[in-house]
Amino acid sequence: METDFLVIGSGIAGLTYSLKIAEKFPDKKVVIITKAESDETNTKYAQGGVAGVQDFSIDSFSKHIEDTLIAGDGLCNPEVVDIVVREGVQRINEIIEWGTRFDKDPSGDYMLGKEGGHSENRILHHKDITGKEIERALLQKIKSLPNIELITHCFVLDIITQHHLGYLVTKSTPDIKCYGVYILNTINNKIDKVISKITLMATGGNGQVYRSTTNPAIATGDGVAMAYRAKSRIENMEFIQFHPTALYEPGAKGQSFLITEAVRGDGAILRNEKGEAFMKRYDEREDLAPRDIVARAIDNEMKINGTEFVYLDCRQMNKEKFIEHFPNIYAKCLSVGIDVFKNMIPVSPAAHYSCGGIKTNIWGETSIKNLFAAGECASTGLHGANRLASNSLLEAMVFAHRSFICSAEIIDTLSLPTGIPDWNAEGTKAATEMILITQSIKELKQIMSDYVGIVRNNKRLSRASRRLDLLHEETERLYQHTEVSPALCELRNMITVAYLIVKSAEFRKESRGLHFNTDYPGKSSILQNTIL
Q1: With 90 as the cut, is the pLDDT of residue 29 above it?
Q2: Are residues 361 and 324 in the same domain?
Q3: Which of these, 292, 238, 283, 245, lies nearest to 264 by C-alpha position?
Q4: Nearest 5°: phi and psi at 240?
Q5: What b/e string do you get for 368-401 counting C-beta neighbours within 10 Å, with b at 16 or more?
């Protein structure tokens, strides 16, 4: 298959970019590839909302910028923060024009929420399923454009570069170029190549490397792993954000149910097993402190009291308002026997968001020519050491737009490459024992959860590194002699991402933002990104 523009991922970043490209170039082809259903993305599970200054009588760009910089703990790129905050309002207005419905009050004004780290109410939301509403509107808009082809159930195996033409490619190789990707059709198990002039990586997050995560099963870090193998620059992978309040369900497996931070923004209070409102002991902002502080506080309370969860107390909140704003949270809690107006909700932190990823410039360009990145898989410089709540959807839209601008400027200077070889599966056989894959995934999740979680130290990181080395060796041997499958490739990608998280954490000799190492409890005066 040949195309002008190739987009990997169908979340808010990939769809926004595709829409803009398709409308500007009706004579050019846009192909979107996703490994599951078109709407099964991290975007779909974003509950809280999207941050953007709306009421300029009380709020301002400078306040939003300052809140973002404070949350980022000194590692944000100030230029990028300014760009995202100022341009973000335009991007929000665009998705409203495309059909996204944010909640309004009876007078017709947008209902603005407040979350941890924000100094003002500026979160637009659609009940407690904002991401799902945005995804719905974008997919509906996509269907109206005939030059977009959306291909589902295709797993992207690797980025094609000069390496596949027989050249030695290293990180110091000048002008590495992206020529497209190899894909595995999971319906018929055929491997094809998609040749493209420009490729956008919008593959989302990597929360599945942890045992407990709010991310869906698809979030296996595929984009970051593929870009790293292609010798792209990766940065700040040590900064994994743990959402403080995922619903604690003993024995539950898979994706944890998120209790959005907006619940605390509306007045819910965190309490320990003794019923104490403990956040006042950790931060003057109490329950609305930034996520890194709240997650560490909960982790500490759990360790002090020997419990696996703390409580979120909503009993004092207005019942009618709660059910209107958080209908899915209310229904989910009822389904597991919790009436939030009679019982406190058991919650514990879960891996949620990666602040690092594929390093880009202010136009979404990676260190590989003709390869762009946007959304959670990218590291733009916005989040620094910790993401401010509800800035992720904003960032995805802004950098999808900027990638579109840059792509539009260069597309007519590019031509489709020729001579790209087919995928080489010589010497491989069908897998005979899935246990070799499934057990390795379990081991990986346990290693990362036990040793590279909210609180770390050098000994834990060293142990994690050694165990990951063994998993890597075993998996590479399996990969070399086994026909590729999504399960095998996801395992391989997750091991790569876990390695990047651990190595980045080992390089950072301080505690900053989401990275807290008990061997270096203080902050360094030297601010630097970890680039791999």
Answers
A1: yes
A2: no
A3: 245
A4: -100, 120
A5: bbbbbbbbbbbbbbbbbbbbbbbbbbbbbbbbbb
Residues belonging to the chain = 532
Tokens of 473: 């060796």
Query: Could you tell me which of 43, 44, 13, 28 has the C-alpha nearest to residue 149?
Result: 28
Give residue-wise pLDDT tens across range 173-202.
Answer: 989 999 999 999 999 999 999 999 999 999
Assigned domain for 75 exists: no
Q: Is the domain of 139 the same as that of 212? A: yes
Q: Which of 382, 256, 394, 390 is nearest to 329 (CA)?
A: 256
Per-residue pLDDT tens digits for 470-489: 999 999 999 999 999 999 99
**526 within domain boundaries:** no
Q: In whole angstroms, what is the distance from residue 393 CA to residue 263 CA?
A: 19
> What's the rounded Cα separation, in Å, for the pair 202 and 223?
7
Q: Dihedrals φ, ψ of 260, to 5°?
A: -55, 150
How many domains in the chain?
A: 3
Q: Do 263 and 191 share a domain, yes or no?
A: no
**Catalytic residue at 271?**
no
Q: What is the mean pLDDT of residues 159-171?
A: 92
Q: For residue range 352-408, what is the model confidence (pLDDT) as tens digits?
A: 999 999 999 999 999 999 999 999 999 999 999 999 999 999 999 999 999 999 999
pLDDT of residue 250: 87
Domain span at residue 392? 2-48+131-238+355-413
Shared domain for 331 and 259, answered yes or no, is: yes
Task: Count the helices and strands in the chain (H runs, E runs).
Answer: 13, 18
Alpha carbons 71 and 118: distance in angstroms, whole number: 9
**What pLDDT is recorded for position 328?**
93
CATH of the domain at 36: 3.50.50.60
Active-site residue identified among 211, 291, 456, 492: 291
Element (H, E) at 242: strand 240-247
H helices present in 221-314, as ranges:
222-229, 262-265, 291-305
Q: Is 109 domain-assigned?
A: no
194 and 330 fall within a common domain:
no
CATH number at residue 329: 3.90.700.10
Q: Answer whether 358's CB lies under 8 Å from 227's CB.
A: yes
- At 80 the pLDDT is 98
DSSP assignment of 195-220 equals EEEEEEE-----GGGSSSBSS-TT-S
End residue of a domain, out of 318, 349, 380? 349
CATH assignment of the domain containing 513? 1.20.58.100
Place of tokens 């989040």: 383
Residue 240 CB contacts under 8 Å (≥ 6 apart), including other chains: 210, 351, 353, 354, 355, 452, 501, 514
**280 and 232 together in one domain:** no
216 and 320 both lie in a single domain:
no
41 with 141, same domain: the answer is: yes
